[in-house]
Amino acid sequence: MKKGDSNPVPPEIQAEIDALDASQEPIRTDLIPEAAGDWSRARRGVFYRPLKQQITLSLDADLIDWFKTQATQEEGYQTSINRVLREYVETRAKKQNPLKIE
Question: What's one Pfam family the UniProt record gives for this protein (predicted)?
Fold first, then answer.
């Protein structure tokens, strides 16, 4: 990053940062346990799989309006659409195949 690319920190905030920094004791690294095993070949994110996939979906305007009017703080309209689709698919799958969809 080039010098001057970021916004300067206001003096009052910098004073708070300096006060917090000055009050902290040095970190005692001797109290941190050593990592077990060899981590030299470790890779991040290998086992993570998102549960949802973002897509673009065209729906009738009246359906979207209805779901939006039914939305609550706990469940937004997109979550409601997802829930209704899941219930439909699980119901159909039970009729067509005795194995449950996970």
Answer: BrnA_antitoxin
